[in-house]
Write a structure and sequence with these properties.
Elements: H1 8-18, E1 24-26, E2 40-42, H2 63-66, E3 75-80, E4 90-91, E5 98-99, H3 101-113, E6 116-121, H4 124-133, E7 138-139, E8 153-168, E9 186-190, H5 194-201, H6 204-208, E10 215-219, H7 222-230, E11 236-240, H8 241-250, E12 254-270, H9 276-289, H10 291-299
Parallel strand pairs: 3-6, 3-7, 9-10, 9-11
Antiparallel strand pairs: 1-2, 4-5, 8-11, 8-12
Helix pairs in contact: 1-7, 3-9, 3-10
Length: 318
């Protein structure tokens, strides 16, 4: 959930900071992974540690799903943000090739539907508003399904992720179950994200209790978030569960605190879209033929699997 950096070199520098040359990708999710240690999945990887296993090229067009597309649709423009920690969207070492869990899901769905996709980079916070204007047909950047977003956006779900926290190992924080525990602390997060919205919405909890408010520090690049934490300018990071687990596994001196709020994650569309039934059918096809499981295994996110795809479900309450 990050905005793109302005040059490939800056992105590569970001990932040099948050990844190591390893073939292990940390798993995430609920159940046995709740301890924060996670599990690992073997995957072919480049020298920067980002998985490169091809799990999409063999996907075949499904005529039944393709027939659900509106007449004449042969290509789709997809808005995506670049610069997240894996499994989010990033570049390979060539500075041009996009990789990530969202990239694999987008390409796999496109193959099922028999359409071409034009993936265009945009800042995270600009993608959803651009759907309404028609600049993009689809938004794909680990968008959580929230009550507020459902007012203007339709979703087709494909994973379950959500909100969590991480901090330095020397921190006294062990688990965050109430945002009032953050009173007086500096909290780093991504600009335009559900994390920023959640923190801002609940900022009154500290002052209501007569305590010093926490300070929300927003950054447009994930490297800046983690640098802020590592260098002591921030006390805790709020981000995606999957991204936190990966970052903690690949950076020294950090610990995953806990999952705070689970959210369904989906492809985002303009409200009232006619594309949703086709995308839902495509995700269901990927689940049925095993491609879905292969994508999650590649990115170490099997704990985020869903049993079935839904169109604009209500926000999860947990």
């Amino acid at each position: 959930m990050r905005t793109p950096s302005h040059t490939p070199s800056r992105l590569l520098a970001s990932f040099a900071l948050i990844t190591s040359a390893t073939v292990l990708v940390t798993a995430c999710g609920s159940g046995s992974d709740d301890s924060g240690s996670g599990s690992t999945a073997q995957a072919a990887a480049g020298s920067d540690g980002i998985p490169t296993t091809d799990v999409v090229s063999g996907v075949q067009k499904d005529e039944a799903a393709a027939k659900l597309l509106p007449p004449g649709v042969t290509s789709l423009t997809v808005g995506t943000s670049v610069g997240s920690t894996p499994p989010g969207t990033s570049y390979l070492e060539d500075g041009k090739t996009l990789v990530g869990q969202d990239v694999d899901f987008t390409n796999a769905v496109a193959k099922v539907l028999g359409v071409e996709v034009d993936q265009q980079q945009a800042s995270f916070e600009a993608i959803l508003p651009a759907l309404d204007s028609g600049k993009y047909d689809v938004g794909v950047s680990n968008f959580g399904v929230t009550t507020e977003r459902l007012k203007t956006i339709d979703f087709v779900t494909y994973i379950n992720d959500g909100q969590g926290f991480a901090t330095r190992k020397d921190s006294k924080l062990a688990k965050v179950t109430d945002l009032a525990q953050l009173c007086g602390l500096n909290v780093a997060t991504g600009a335009g994200t559900t994390f920023e919205a959640t923190l801002e919405k609940n900022a009154h909890l500290c002052t209501d209790a007569g305590k010093k408010a926490y300070k929300v520090q927003t950054y447009s690049e994930s490297s800046a978030v983690w640098s802020s934490l590592q260098q002591g300018r921030s006390d805790v990071v709020m981000s995606t569960i999957n991204g936190l687990r990966y970052a903690v596994a690949h950076q020294d001196g950090l610990k995953f605190l806990n999952e705070f709020h689970r959210l369904d994650v989906g492809f985002a569309f303009k409200k009232g879209t006619k594309l949703a039934p086709a995308f839902q059918a495509a995700v269901e096809k990927l689940i049925a033929d095993g491609t879905y499981a292969k994508i999650l295994k590649k990115w170490g996110t099997t704990g985020s699997a869903i049993a079935t795809s839904q169109i604009s479900p209500p926000e999860l309450k947990n």
